[in-house]
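input
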Amino acid sequence: PATLPFIYKDMMLVVIYLAVVLVDLRRLFNPSPLSRGITATLGLFSGLVLIYLLVPTPVSLLSELVAVKQRLFYIPLLVVAYFFIRSIDDMRRLVTALAAYSLAVAGFGIYLFFAGPEGLRGLGAGYSPIIYAAQTSVETWRVPGTFTSPGQYGVFLMFNGLVVSALVVDGEAPRWARILALISLITITIAM
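output
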């Protein structure tokens, strides 16, 4: 049961991808020049990832398929966002949603810092692999189904901190959105 939310998320993404394409098939067969450029770049990146995964390793095929999903399945969300951003107000709404999401993720990271693996197991996670940083002998643990390394979590926080800070200083954004962004930015900074 603890893995079902991850499957639901992936199923929802498939529905979103299909909905974006099927609503207007011209997007697929007659894309705009900008869309063609994004698609070509993402296609090249996807091809390189797939070629890299063909390199012989002791990792099982199932593990490699999970790696493909982790690296490639979420990239089309960039194209989905492209179709939904039509104005500066749409961009503000997207960044406000990122601020709310970042606040939740950073807050959960802070909680886990204090609660440790026991707190994670108490939420229903049946496993939480321990990751050791060889250089510092620091022990961390990975939340199942999330970031693959503490560095990836840090990059997520830095990127979202940068994006959210733009909303903090946007004088035309609604006051509540700027306050949410400020709270998110403070929480992100603490989580780092």
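quick obs: The chain has a mean pLDDT of 75.
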